[in-house]
Amino acid sequence: MSAPGAVVAHEPAPNGTGVVAQFILALICAGYGVGAALGWGSPELALIMGDFGLSAGALVAAVSCFLYARTSPPRLRPAWLLFALSSLMASAGNAVWGWYEVVLDREVPSPSIADLFFLCFAPPAIVGLLVLAKRPVSRAGWVCLGLDAWLIGGSLLTLSWSLALAHTTRVQGESVAPAALSLAYPLLDIVLVSMVLALHFRRSATNRSAVNTAIAALALTVLCDTLFTSPLLRESYRSGQLLDAGWFAGSLLLAYAPWGARRPVESLRPPRAPRPSSPVAGSLAALTPYLAAAVCTLGILYNVVEGRTVDRVVVLTGCTVVLALVVRQGIMLVDNIALTHELAQKENHFRSLVQGSSDVIMIAAPTGVLRYVSPAASGVYGREADELIGSELATLIHPEDLGRVIREVRRFLTAPPSEEPTTRIECRFRSGSGEWLNVESTVNRHQGGLIFNSRDVTERVRLQAQLQHSAEHDPLTDLPNRALFTDRVRQALTGRRSSDRGTAVLFIDLDGFKGVNDRLGHQAGDELLVQAAGRLADSVRAGDTAARLGGDEFAALIIGDGGADQATREGHVAEIADRLRLTLSQPYRVDGNDVRVAASIGVAFAEVGITPTDLMRNADLAMYRAKAAGKDRVELYVPQMQAEVVRRTELAARLRTALHDGEFALLHQPVVNLATGRIEAVAAQARWRSAQGMLFTPAEFLRSTDDGDRSAELGRWLLEEAVEQAAERDRLGHRVPVSVRLSARRLLDRSLPGGTVEALLTRHGLPSGALIIELADSDPRISFDDLEERLITLRRLGVRIALDGFGSGHAAINALRKLPVDMLKLDRGLIEGIVESARLHKITSGLLRIAGDLGLQSVADGVDAPEQVLALRAMGCTHGQGMAFAGPLDEYRLRRALVRDDFPLPGGIALPVLAGGSLNPHTGSNSETRVPPA
């Protein structure tokens, strides 16, 4: 369907109110015509209806046009006011005519006041038609409009003069007034008819229905006036005859014109492009001057054929008509020359723009055949324009894009042009080399067909695809990133297999990857990640997705096939996960070295109604459970994991509040000399009593939070409280050292204020040897040189160093070889089975022998049974700490124990087997302590 056809198809029909009004109008006019044809039943009624009836109809037209003029646009208001005045003159003329015939019951004199009113009917109507006409845009247009009116008027005057007016003039003889009055009516009607004919093809498009109806009403009135002025009809005319029905219908039609049935519909219709004029109307408008000259010629020929002498009026009028035609043709010739020159310039300008444009301009017929292709096609498509002309557009578009292009073109053609003048289509176009180019086209309507303004956007599409790929893939491994992986999970959960519980998400973390970065560098770490990504991508199926989420974390989406029961599918996914673990745990060849890392994998299965975020979170929780359970393993998600996370999160939140609200308490556990039973040191321990009444040990709440900041803050609080309380006890006479457990990282933390331990000792006045720092198992990433330097500085201040957890860490022997320590603190794990296990008994005995050979004191942690005390003392352990003597004590109970200063030992007091001295600083000098070589 063409664009104009689409608009016409959507044009609303007149409403019911307009049809009713037209029916009532036709009924009234038909009733008046029947009455006039039958003589109205009596002469008196015929006179009343022929005079005052016409006056009433004209008055209705005057009032209607006046009321419409008040609401019409300013440009049209004068025209309708003039029509109202014209109808008012006709109403007044008929009223005067009726006054003579009906009221006074005598003949209407000639001339009379009625003639004056009737003569004033035409001029306002003529001016009103001029106002409604489409105004010419140039002086030549105004001149041509006047010439066209004279050509029509002069031709009609020639013809009417030849037929009737000359006879009327001769009949009137020498009486000037009757002759002038007889000629005035036909001459004014001729002018009015000329304007109606001349302006019929020049009327404005605004409210076209009202204008057409008004022109029809005036034309009907002029026709009746013409019949009335003919000598034959005028001699026999009486009021109330059939001729009055024409005048009456013309008046009612003019009254109906501004309130026509189509006007409400048009006022509600959205504005649209003007409809092009029909070829017939254009041809009649162009032939109007020639038709007028032909009518003039017929008037002269009539006189010649009848053998009459050609009247001077006919000759003069004919000459002026011919002269007007010649002048008009000259003006049109000059205008045509100017228009031809302007058209040539615009055509050259258009041709230059089209040929010089880098875009390809194509014009397609409604059938899809290309009628025109600009020369730019050779540079854009690699095909000459002549080669493309005549080919069908559908054969040049990629088959996958053809359906979409056809649907868009059909939709565009059915849309109103005013609402959517253009559209944009992007598709693939076949080039001369056979490749497919991405082409973007702006489409416009053109004479039922289409104009395509196309450009090659292949590079832009490639760049967009590259940017899209970069946005959705990891730059190092080229695997899908977190965003794309999340989208794939969402598609799997919302697709046709959304209820398949065989769909699973695997979260994978490489254990030991950080050590590879630290030992071999980040470049080697990147190479290992690339190899791991390749193994992962090769291990999943074609329909699955492998992704890198960041760092050394990977993920895999396993799509369920729905072909087996739930247990079988879950078992299949578990096998895939274990196979991935083994594959990723194989040695990697990086920079000539074999590097090994392990893989901890968490698996979570899809459930009905689960969201992608929850499914990925479940897999992440399972992966962290695998790492916490020893790494290099596969863990399946269970709901208890989420409950554990909630508990840990709540605990961490309460811990942050407890640190600031002072809910932590400091307890001390006595360190007892196994030979004498005396308390020679106390070990500071933090306890947190929560608002719920639960008492947490440091290991419990720090393991639950995994918060490095909270751990550091708690360590600072523990050290400061322990030093402050030890100083207070020293002032009260309880001179017993206090041991505080600190990590090596805490001692070397550069972000802490310089000299924290030193500042505490100075501020609280703690004597030399009263502070023991239990050094936890050192981090392998910490330099032993820096740690040794820090420990030597502290020992110069009288701080003694204990190596905590000896016998459990892999770095204990290395630390013992390099670091300056004063004592060894045996790990609780060795003490728990020392009585039952002969193997542990030998290991512990050997460690104590090493301590004795190095001259170091030894402290056994976790001594909870008397049998353990006896065994340790027999092995040569010097000190013990545990429930066999006392648990952690508050300050009040600690001072009572210090006053007593004696714990009963099983088997009585025994002399130490191995030399080690005392923990109490007052039994010996710190400088006398033997220090192993660094």
Automatic annotation (TrEMBL):
<feature type="domain" description="PAS">
    <location>
        <begin position="346"/>
        <end position="416"/>
    </location>
</feature>
<feature type="transmembrane region" description="Helical">
    <location>
        <begin position="46"/>
        <end position="68"/>
    </location>
</feature>
<feature type="transmembrane region" description="Helical">
    <location>
        <begin position="314"/>
        <end position="334"/>
    </location>
</feature>
<dbReference type="InterPro" id="IPR000160">
    <property type="entry name" value="GGDEF_dom"/>
</dbReference>
<feature type="transmembrane region" description="Helical">
    <location>
        <begin position="280"/>
        <end position="302"/>
    </location>
</feature>
<keyword id="KW-0812">Transmembrane</keyword>
<feature type="transmembrane region" description="Helical">
    <location>
        <begin position="213"/>
        <end position="233"/>
    </location>
</feature>
<dbReference type="InterPro" id="IPR035919">
    <property type="entry name" value="EAL_sf"/>
</dbReference>
<dbReference type="Pfam" id="PF00563">
    <property type="entry name" value="EAL"/>
</dbReference>
<feature type="transmembrane region" description="Helical">
    <location>
        <begin position="183"/>
        <end position="201"/>
    </location>
</feature>
<protein>
    <submittedName>
        <fullName>EAL domain-containing protein</fullName>
    </submittedName>
</protein>
<keyword id="KW-1133">Transmembrane helix</keyword>
<feature type="domain" description="GGDEF">
    <location>
        <begin position="501"/>
        <end position="639"/>
    </location>
</feature>
<keyword id="KW-0472">Membrane</keyword>
<feature type="transmembrane region" description="Helical">
    <location>
        <begin position="80"/>
        <end position="100"/>
    </location>
</feature>
<dbReference type="Pfam" id="PF00990">
    <property type="entry name" value="GGDEF"/>
</dbReference>
<dbReference type="InterPro" id="IPR029787">
    <property type="entry name" value="Nucleotide_cyclase"/>
</dbReference>
<feature type="transmembrane region" description="Helical">
    <location>
        <begin position="112"/>
        <end position="133"/>
    </location>
</feature>
<dbReference type="InterPro" id="IPR000014">
    <property type="entry name" value="PAS"/>
</dbReference>
<dbReference type="InterPro" id="IPR001633">
    <property type="entry name" value="EAL_dom"/>
</dbReference>
<feature type="transmembrane region" description="Helical">
    <location>
        <begin position="19"/>
        <end position="40"/>
    </location>
</feature>
<feature type="transmembrane region" description="Helical">
    <location>
        <begin position="140"/>
        <end position="163"/>
    </location>
</feature>
<dbReference type="InterPro" id="IPR013656">
    <property type="entry name" value="PAS_4"/>
</dbReference>
<dbReference type="InterPro" id="IPR052155">
    <property type="entry name" value="Biofilm_reg_signaling"/>
</dbReference>
<dbReference type="InterPro" id="IPR035965">
    <property type="entry name" value="PAS-like_dom_sf"/>
</dbReference>
<dbReference type="Pfam" id="PF08448">
    <property type="entry name" value="PAS_4"/>
</dbReference>
<dbReference type="InterPro" id="IPR043128">
    <property type="entry name" value="Rev_trsase/Diguanyl_cyclase"/>
</dbReference>
<feature type="domain" description="EAL">
    <location>
        <begin position="648"/>
        <end position="902"/>
    </location>
</feature>
